[in-house]
């Protein structure tokens, strides 16, 4: 399903003679689905992973959370096409240049038949503060803190927001951890962090997959909350990557060997 216009839009055009034809063709291989997994993108050689990996991540997210089927891995060609188009649109809509004009997409949610207004504050009071977890996956950019606080009906005066930025992000890293945010503004709520959740690993290179079949590797992540040598699993790069967010995480894969990042 190679398309020149789409390829140039995603990867850009060759920058003159500074880059050889062979390398540039390798980098702009296009999007090719695996024959072993309906929604798995295959990568022929090293190079285009900088584009393929984030597209694959968004695609998997949309397939898992936007699929009404009980088994999300069963996907028809038409369904796959729709998910893929949705994924590229979602990425490109958020990748605009800073100096470009603002835009707004006017749509109705699938379950709504009439126009109306929806707000984050329409949720029950007991669920206040949980929406930002879904939006930012545990991290709130400090540039969006004012918007999040306003959406949650918190004091959102710029001066107060700056005070909160300094308090919640004293090192000036530009991100605010969800745990600190919830502890500051919703201390009475119990943590919504799950003790365990499914994880999916994907590597688009055939040679890095078992039997050279490009497929998802499924496993279970367990958040311990403390280090327990009795349940230590492995020390793979995948685990070390996840430990940057969950220091005491253990991974149990459904296969005999841990997936490869190479």
From TrEMBL:
One GO process term, biological-process aspect: protein K48-linked deubiquitination
Alphabetic keyword roster: Hydrolase, Protease, Thiol protease, Ubl conjugation pathway
EC number: 3.4.19.12
UniProt catalytic activity: Thiol-dependent hydrolysis of ester, thioester, amide, peptide and isopeptide bonds formed by the C-terminal Gly of ubiquitin (a 76-residue protein attached to proteins as an intracellular targeting signal)
One Pfam family in the UniProt entry: MINDY-3_4_CD
EC category name: hydrolase
Deubiquitinating enzyme MINDY-3/4 conserved domain residues: 7-169
GO molecular function: cysteine-type deubiquitinase activity; K48-linked deubiquitinase activity
Similarity annotation: Belongs to the MINDY deubiquitinase family. FAM188 subfamily.
Summary of the function given for this chain in its UniProt record: Hydrolase that can remove 'Lys-48'-linked conjugated ubiquitin from proteins.
Protein name in UniProt: Ubiquitin carboxyl-terminal hydrolase MINDY
Species: Callorhinchus milii
Gene that this polypeptide is encoded by: mindy3
